[in-house]
Amino acid sequence: MATSTLTTQEKDAFIRDENRTILPIVENFYKFCGQGKLMGVKCQRCGALLWPPRVVCPKCFSGAFDWIQFRGKGKLLTYTIIHFPPSQFQALAPYAVGILKLEEGPQLPGMIKNVKLEDLRIGMDLQVDFETALPKEWPRWARYFFKPTS
Amino acid sequence: MATPVASIVSGGVSKFGVREGLYGRELFAEAAKEAFDRCSNLDPKRDIQALFVGMMSESYEHQAHVAPLFLDWVGLLPIPAFRTEGACASSSVAMRTALFAIASGMYDVVLVGGVEKMTHVSTTGVTEILAMASDFPFEQWHGISFPGIFAMMAVDHMHRYGTTEEQMARVAVKNHDHGVLNSKAHFQKRITVGEVLSSRPVAWPLKLFDCCPRTDGASCLVLTSPRVAKKFTDTPVQIMGSGQAQDTLSLFERQNFSTMNVTKLASQQAYKMANVSPEDIDVAELHDCFTIAEIIAYEDLGFCEAGRGGKLIEDGVTRLGGKMPVNTSGGLKAKGHPVGATGVAQAYEIYLQLTNQAGKRQVSPAEIGLTQNVGGAASTGVVHVYQRGD
Q1: Is residue B127 part of a domain?
Q2: Is B252–A30 a contact, with Cβ atoms under 8 angstroms apart?
């Protein structure tokens, strides 16, 4: 197994291949979120910018990528206000979710916080921030979210 | 006109609604019995060679491996049975699979159906089970519910085209009006635009009455090769065209949230195969899981231009009595949406319409029909075109 050489003393817990390359997978995306970084990957062959990271480039079928960090700024493409949420989000309702288009191009969905619901507008500037608390059980992913540009 | 792919010679649906105490297997048997009873020339044991059945989730009844189970409960052991899953389009995918089986020459007579038993699970529980058809790490993880996904389409459509909440409400009002004429519909109750607009918010701008209910139900059809159809009935309905396409599981990766590309692609395939155009359609059953979805479907199917769907409902074109009646059964909104049963239930309504068996909701003339069924956030889309075959 590629990960068998890793020890529990590793400073980071990224999933890597035998060359110590951080694999372009969802788990590692969220581990970066835990470090406060919004990351995607760039295909080494065709240059496609992918978010979320994938193990195979859907444009050229290459499997070699470089991780790149996004600035985390973008515009709101669409949104909604959830009044009837899935049970684990009930305490937060009503809350806003939307789709952000990053300055670098990729689009991502997420929760919108620190904004009055009536102030939400398509096209408004938002930036990505990160929750610091991790869930206790699988998946132990740090959530990113959107907030108004400061 | 082109050559038919397969023929519908009979069909049945269970009563849709809150079917307390009944299991999926019993609902499917109820649907199958109607199909068997309708077709006196059919000897199910002798004639039917395979079953194709769609169901979305094992979670509702804690029951997987349903293909042999449903087969057994309609008395058809030991013929092969296949289960398909395509979220809300599960049984339309079953129907396409059945078409492949017939077109291959492997089988001449097959049973196709769909089942979902939902109402014994709480609304919260159903919301969670349905959400499984959306992306876990990027949609479910961020609290994006299914109504939330369609609400984001609606907000985009309102912003881009000026579509209004009132226009969306009119879809619900129309489909409830139609449901009154269908004794098997979940709801037989008219509602007003005002009631829709003042119903409690689910995911703005979608309110409770913009959303289809959770429903128990099952559906089935007997499909044959066109060659043998007349052995079973003088009035088969011919399946003339069939199309299917897929899109990203999540909404966020798409370039335009106001369209469902799968509907466009699947309908282009089906129209081409049947050699018809949108204006030839006399009656259609469309996927109105949320009111905005029916408006977008009008546009993607070519019933009107992009952005004109709100106007089409406002002008009454798609009401019974209008130029192109849509969802005469009551649609998902009023007939109900037992997820896995929906695709074949849509085809059943068109079968009734094209054989003049639709009673008070009969469209005339009804020569060519269409069904459009999408799964998840329109990650699966299936369109079929039908023609009366007498």
Answers
A1: no
A2: no
Q: Do B142 and A84 touch (CB under 8 A)?
A: no
Q: Which residue range forms the structural domain that includes residue B159?
A: 134-213+239-388
How many structural domains is chain B composed of? 2
Q: Are residues B84 and B99 in the same domain?
A: yes
* pLDDT for the residue B322: 97
Distance from CA of B87 to the nearest CA of A (A): 18
Residue B251 with chain A: CB contacts under 8 Å: 99, 109
The closest alpha carbon to A131, from A120, A122, A121, A140, belongs to A140
Each residue's pLDDT tens digit, A96-123: 999 999 999 999 999 999 999 999 999 9
Can you give the pLDDT at residue A88? 86
Residue B276 located in a structural domain: yes
Q: How many CB pairs under 8 A join A and B?
A: 97
Asked whether residue B318 falls in the same domain as residue B274, the answer is yes
User: Which chain B residues have a beta carbon less than 8 Å from that of A107?
Assistant: 252-253
- For tokens 């105490």, the residue is B21
Q: How far apart are CA B381 and CA B296, in angstroms?
A: 13
Is B159 marked active-site?
no
Residues of chain B found within 8 Å of residue A101, distances taken between Cβ atoms: none
Average pLDDT, chain B: 97
Q: Do B203 and A95 touch (CB under 8 A)?
A: no
Q: Which residues of chain B have pLDDT under 50?
A: none
Say yes or no: B315 and B192 in one domain.
yes
pLDDT of residue A3: 34
Task: Flag whether B128 is in a domain.
Answer: no
Q: Are residues B17 and B96 in the same domain?
A: yes
Residues B91 and B142 in one domain: no
Distance (Å) from the C-alpha of residue A121 to the closest C-alpha of chain B? 10
Q: For the domain A73-148, what is the CATH code?
A: 2.40.50
Marked catalytic residue, from B88, B211, B220, B289: B88
Pick the residue of B140, B142, B256 with the most A CBs within 10 A to test the interface with A by mutation. Answer: B142
Query: Is the same domain home to B49 and B162?
Result: no
Ranges of CATH 2.40.50 domains, chain A: 73-148
What ipTM score was computed for the predicted complex, to two decimals?
0.95
SS3 per-residue string spanning chain A? CCCCCCCCCCCCCCCECCCCCECCCHHHHHHHHHCCCCEEEEECCCCCEECCCCCCCCCCCCCCEEEEECCCEEEEEEEEEECCCCHHHHHHCCEEEEEEEECCCCEEEEEECCCCHHHCCCCCEEEEEECCCCCCCCCCCCCEEEEECC
Q: Catalytic annotation on B88?
A: yes
Whether residue A140 has pLDDT greater than 90: no
**Chain B closest-CA separation from residue A66 CA (Å):** 20
- Return the closest-CA partner of residue A40 out of A100, A87, A98: A100
Instruction: Provide the pLDDT confidence category of residue A12 given band limits of 50, 70 and 90.
Output: low
